[in-house]
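Tutorial, part two.
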Amino acid sequence: MRYVTLGTGGPGESVGVIDPTAYPARLSELADDLPSGARAFATDPGHYDFSGRRCVKDLTPHEVRRVGDRAELRLRHHCWKHDEDLVVRYEGVSRFHVDTAEVCDVRILGEVVLDEVLPHAEGCSHEISCRTGTLVVVCRDLVAGWVAAGCPEA
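Running the prediction step on this input gives:
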């Protein structure tokens, strides 16, 4: 992650402290350089609202489908926080990298800590940092959408 602090205990970081504030602060400068779908996803007001239902934090990567230069990532909800799943569709994928041994099963990554969408020479990059690994996708553009999930009424 370039702007999001994940609190890994590096120089000047406290272990476990998650601080996304530098990223949204830079988005005003970066947004114009993002493709339209990536810009809409990254600048959504709920993206980093930790208590919000449409915050990516705590979603769980569940499934990846790849066909040609397209990929679809499904992230599952947790009923205690979300009432929808997130589906991210990537177009023009030039890089799809999971940094765990279980590349074929993204569920091994665990819950999302945070993500970052940045401009890239090929369109955009989407880095998703999870509890046990990281997923990085470089693509022409992405479209993210929330879909109803089966949570019981409170």
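The CA atoms of residues 41 and 143 lie 7 Å apart. In part three we will examine how such features are distributed along the chain.
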